[in-house]
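Example 3.2
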Amino acid sequence: MEIRKAKIEEFDQIFMLGYDVWGEDASICEYLDDCKNSEKYQSGEWYVLVNDEVVLSALIVYSKCFGLADNYHGIGSIATDPKHRKKGYASKLISYFCQKLKDEGISGLYLYSDIDDNFYKKLGFDVVLKDYGTCMINTFCSKEALPDNIPNYF
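Structure, written as tokens:
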């Protein structure tokens, strides 16, 4: 298994990881078009967990957008292929980025959750706001150093 930046030719496959959850009533073509044209999805960098070039799980990493404070990043659109859920792949991907960003000197990592908070709490995240989704942070610095502003939903 390998974690790496996503390749352009993998984007359709990445977007389809979340179709069953985020696709709503859109056809597959409409959903893929929406994803490809999404400013939000174009604002970050996509990463994947792959096995034999098959994308198992993916997420997007944001910095310097959505009101993220300097030295803080956000992750979002965390999704795993429905055939491979409940095998720890998303946890592995998130844990990798928590450690990678901590090693790079980033102060904390935000995410907005639309699933049970306990999934992310097990990975070191704490709830900072319950509003449109639950905003959570994994801090790599002292709690006193947290920024005053919570980033916008991403």
